[in-house]
Amino acid sequence: VRMMHALRTAFSQHELFLMYQPQIDLATRRPVGAEALLRWRTRDGKFVSPDRFIPIAEYSGLIIELGEWVLRTACAELVRLRAAGHRDFTVSVNVSQVQFRHPQFLAMLRQALDDTGAPPEYVELEITESMAMEEPHLLVEMLAEVRGTGVKVAIDDFGTGFSSLSHLQRLQIDRLKIDRAFVTEITGSSRGSSIAEMVIQLGRNLGLSIVAEGVEDERQAQVLFHLGCPLAQGFLFARPMPAEDLMAWLAGEA
Ligand code: G
Ligand code: G
Ligand code: MN
Ligand code: NA
After folding, report:
1. Whole domain around residue 161: which residue ranges?
2. How far is CA 178 from CA 129, 184, 232, in A?
3. What separation in Å is there between the alpha carbon of 115 and the centre of ligand 3?
4. Is the Cβ atom of 50 under 6 angstroms away from ligand 1?
5. Which ligand does the CA of 214 lie closest to?
6. Which CATH number belongs to the domain containing residue 187 in this structure?
7. How many domains does the chain have?
8. What is the pLDDT of residues 34-60, one digit of tens each?
9. Residue 94 alpha carbon to ligand 4 centre in Å
10. Interface ipTM
């Protein structure tokens, strides 16, 4: 309860902000987008992990307001990046289950796109694999509506759940994100690499885009590329950075 109050205060006092982590095309090594990641730095300079405060935001309902702010901020940043000449660049936003299920979610999404002028086809929502497995009928409808706006959808942390091929086939999604755990194992045991390999094959068979998460060294990048994974994200390329730094980083990559 104390943390719930602290989080509310933090949000109203602008202690929450977004960092952006670039996503890279493994063939050309050029940036193709960035994932927006929420951060909380308290007034005494301590960082609180989203793994700790997102569940509290969900439980308290604050996630509705907070999630809207995240989406609007990321859309506004996308517009700024485009104005600076980065026109083929996508911004991805994590969406929690509570937010996605909220009756006003679609209206909120449309309003955020309208108000910011963000082109929907360069906005991507990341939903988790566990969300993708619940209540198939509702989800199929929701995804169709989201896709109707032009916004893209990725399944985050893929490989940690148990989505079947037939289930995935029914969902209108654009992209799978291979969970960091399987990327870490890729240069270790053959069992480890076989999971990443399977996810890549699955994505390719369904005509989906694939992003490997948590790529930390060159060997992992090489193996992923040879397995047919087109995109990657991780400390090897860039850490999550504030919006101002992203603009400078992209200018340096050009
Ligand atoms: O960036 P980091 O690894 O600390 O993120 C931890 C978790 O918090 C990740 O699973 C990420 O998806 C989640 N997360 C980060 N930013 C947001 C956000 O804006 N909204 C939601 N719902 N989750 C987020
Ligand atoms: O669950 P989600 O994919 O949304 O969370 C992404 C999280 O992973 C972010 O918090 C980000 O800081 C973290 N991350 C991104 N790249 C790397 C990496 O190369 N190594 C590690 N250990 N964490 C990473
Ligand atoms: Mn994510
Ligand atoms: Na993830």
Report:
1. 2-253
2. 10, 11, 9
3. 24
4. yes
5. 2
6. 3.20.20.450
7. 1
8. 999 999 999 999 999 999 999 999 999
9. 9
10. 0.96
